[in-house]
Design goal:
single chain, alpha/beta, six-stranded mixed β-sheet, globular
Length: 307
């Protein structure tokens, strides 16, 4: 209608439907992703991590989201990691092969082919979880309840991690006979910076609290409210506050900041400075800088175009 004023929620389209994840837009420019397999405490099967990669690839370029909250559905868990029963029954651990011309029963792979088969499987799994880290938008993991095994891999790919008071963590992989191979052993030492503590929790698979996670720097905020449902509500509210604050900033500036921080993670100071100068030689041509300065001088909320 002539003279009518449209709002963000008039324009935002319905997100794609996923089997194991729910996506909503609870505030302007904020997407909320929930891991949703509540009957299995949000534990992961292969179909889930493949779906996760597709979801974050879509969110990475979705013009209606600037910040992403990642949480677990239901009151009991962020995720309890891998569905061990499903993994044990998965033929990935016992593949067979046969000649295309053979009429004989398939035989176990020889060691070289078995190694290649497993490596490709792990590489794909790693790429799916790393899609969170590679997403152009900042991601905040809001954790509650059980956060086990793969939960740590996922959280370490997020840009910010916060936890409810009653959240319980464990790097569980040694308890199922393997070294954590989806990112925890590579990312956690860099995030925490305390090698003794990292080896403590990874070698023992012991449980540790949200308070301990906060003390060691694994999470940057810990809730104060006890109770599964109450604690989850508190951590989601905190995630929303952070997400809305970041979403109010220039998306050019925010996404550029994430890109430069991630790129500089394993680089020298000189390399990081050089990359920043090249990146900003393009980003500074955005109208966002002028808009942010004008809004600040006029004490009004800045308005930035979709990116």
């Amino acid at each position: 209608m002539p003279g009518s004023v449209w709002t963000y929620f008039d324009k935002v389209p319905d997100p794609p439907k996923y089997k194991y994840f729910t996506v909503s837009y609870p505030a302007e420019w904020v997407a909320h992703v929930q891991i949703d397999r509540q009957d299995k405490l949000n534990s992961f099967v292969q179909e889930m991590w493949l779906e996760l990669r597709n979801l974050f690839a879509w969110l990475s370029t979705d013009p209606f989201s600037r910040v992403i909250i990642l949480s677990g559905a239901g009151p009991k868990a962020f995720t309890t990691g891998l569905d061990v029963q499903e993994i044990a029954e998965n033929p990935i651990l016992d593949p067979k092969a046969s000649s295309p011309d053979s009429t004989e029963e398939p035989q176990p792979l020889d060691p070289a082919r078995m190694a290649a088969h497993l490596r490709r499987h792990v590489d794909e799994f790693q790429a799916c979880i790393s899609s969170i880290e590679k997403c152009e938008k900042p991601v905040i993991a809001a954790m509650h309840g059980w956060c086990l095994g793969l939960a740590i891999d996922i959280a370490l790919c997020a840009d910010v991690r916060i936890a409810a008071k009653d959240a319980k963590f464990a790097v569980k992989e040694v308890d199922i006979g393997l070294a954590a191979d989806i990112g925890t052993l590579s990312r956690m030492p860099k995030v925490v910076g305390n090698g003794s503590w990292v080896k403590d929790v990874c070698l023992s698979a012991r449980e540790f609290s949200a308070a301990e996670a906060g003390q060691m720097g694994l999470v940057s905020w810990v809730g104060s409210v006890a109770g599964k449902e109450e604690g989850k509500e508190e951590v989601i509210k905190q995630a929303m506050r952070w997400a809305e604050l970041v979403a109010s900033k220039s998306p050019v500036a925010v996404q550029g900041t994430k890109e430069i921080l991630n790129w500089s993670w394993n680089k020298s100071l000189e390399d990081g400075l050089r990359y920043t100068s090249v990146w900003n030689s393009a980003a500074l041509q955005s109208g966002d800088t002028t808009e942010a300065m004008k809004a600040s001088m006029k004490r009004r909320k800045p308005r930035f175009s979709k990116l």
